[in-house]
Amino acid sequence: MPQTQRLFSLRRPGRRLRHGGRIVMCRTADWIRYPLDKITPVLMRKIVNGITWTSPIRSKGAIRLVTSLLTQAVNDELILRNPSNSIPPTRVTKREIDPFSREEADVLIGKVYEVTSGLQSIYACFFEFSFYTGMRPGEAMALRWSEVDTRSRRAKVCRIRLYGKIKERTKTKVSREVLLNDRALQALEKARLLTAARSDYVFAPEGSGERSELYIRSETGAKRYWLTALRKSGMRYRRMYDTRHTYATMCLMSGMNPAFIAAQLGHSVQVLLSTYAKWISSPSDFAELDKLDLPKNGTKLVLESR
The pTM is what? Predict the structure, then answer.
């Protein structure tokens, strides 16, 4: 087969990529196949614009995957240039932060404990720990007992569960230590009784197999109990990731040092302040505002000194 006819296959954009065949892109319900050397920038834009995307995130992911595939084709000298480079970047609207109040978090945690039993109670421990450490859900799912030191009240975050697999890195590719408060320690003590004897991972669901293989591979189980607890608590829907936002906002509203909170979350202080600015409050806020009403503010002092 000539080089120009060596093709790749992309089935269901953003989902599956495999060698052999052709590039396949979905436009409505049709499958359209094109040889690599027949794909032009105009054709790429036409196909992308003709797809009804369910969300900007899916669009961005699919385009990124196709771009990566075609970049490899360029590197392999199958085509001269990457036609997907002409596709304008997809703008993804940043999600609104929607944390729980501390009271709501405690009610929800209690409900998860109510609706779980036996080994399934590990999900309640997982949510309690997540609410009171601010770890990303994938970081908590990948936490091992060997990285927890309850005596020094620390947990090391150095890996993440991503798409069902454990990755030996964090989202930011930087490890960190999280200091554990009483509620986080309480969740760990409950979890220890359920998982320490059978798994290397703190929040291991029920199952059999090697210790190193027992961890939360899918969010399905956790999400089922999460949604049940939300419904029984009469609370509006929020994502499991909002446990992290809840921890951040609780810390800020308690007046903790932003540098400490950022270190706990694995953020820079700049990202922390830009993300959670409206939750930063202090008893001295009005005292700061009153400085504008002083008899001699900065402008007046400058004028009088002339």
Answer: 0.71
